[in-house]
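Methods: holo model generation. Sequences were used as deposited, without trimming of termini or removal of tags, and paired with ligand SMILES retrieved from the corresponding compound records. Each pair was processed once, and we did not select among multiple samples. The sequence and copper (II) ion SMILES for this entry were:
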Amino acid sequence: MKPTTQILLTMVFLLSTGFTFAKGISTNDPYVREVPPGQTNSATFLTLKNDSDKQIALIKANSDVAKNVELHEHVHANGMMQMRQVPKIIIPANGVTELKPGGYHIMLIGLTRKIKSGDVVDLNLEFDDGSKQAIKATVKKVMQGMMMKGGMKGMKQNGMKMDKSHLNPMPNLMRVFKKMPQKLNLSAEQTEKLKAGIAERGPKVKDLFKAITKYEKEILKATLADKPLSDIDQLATNIVQERLNLINSKAACAVSVKKVMNDEQFANLQAVYKENFAKKQEYSNDMKGKMARLKHVNPMPNLILVIKKMSGKLNLTDKQASQLKQWRDEREPVMENQFKTIIDLENQLQEAALNNAPPEKLAELADGIMQNRMKVMRGKVFCRDKIKQILKPEQYKKVINLYKENFMMQ
Ligand SMILES: [Cu+2]
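and the model returned the structure below.
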């Protein structure tokens, strides 16, 4: 090869890599989640932008800060968020893929050193177009999934869809007004009055959602932190109290809407709601139904599930395994029954509210729901303490850590 040809080729090569660089993946805002001392895993988040006309995938990452670096995603499974490894993370042609809490992330497994806010971590990324990038990610405090502060707002800011259906069993009549006002034949004056009502009640309802979400996070945390039943009972009481407040506020909302409309309009509003928005909760016995239920009625950690799925890591003796199985066989039907009762009663409550049932009837159904919700939460504490009794302290500790590491959102 003549030197000139070689130079030419090198130049073409440089130009082409320059081209790929400009027209390939760019990274934005990489950061690593700060973790408390003793926790051995963390995660990296960033935005990947693809300026090329071809889809490109992130296929590998490594860093000296962790023994293992894996690409992960979060999936809804078993009634909670779980993460799992994925072979690649695709960035669509001329598109953006965000790695964020509750979604895709680069998992750092087995941290090789302590990391705290402000530290900078080096990462190398490899893409399926052959390109590589070295990036620096700053360590930051990131609110963690289920323990996220700021409730719904925090979740929304973190880009997660928040399913509120498990918080409110009452019909949300104002959805009709918001989504299909043309069906209601309202006068301008009525429209103004309803808008004013929403403006007034909206923030209060949001606060109730927030309060329930906050207490549900606290009860999860308290259960994992081995707090006694009395502490957890207090939190459970707060949860059902706020849930009752929410039901009452929805009932009050219906009353004030009724005042703005004439009888015919209100009956029509209920009919439109029934047709378009009312959803009966199904009670199906397949896995999906079971898991949806778990999420819906139970804010507590499901330690039995950890044992079921990760028993290989626990070194259970035969005796322990059979004791745990016996406990599970005993408890599961009881819990299922409580779940079923809650869902039945919530369906009845929705129907009663849409059929002008008297307030006493609504109160009675709401009360039944809350009694069973209390039972579920208390039952989970018994379950925790039973597991603790069967396992050795270090095994139990392992269960708690496995739960935190694998079943809580990164
Ligand atoms: Cu992960």
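Residues 188-224 form the longest helix (37 residues).
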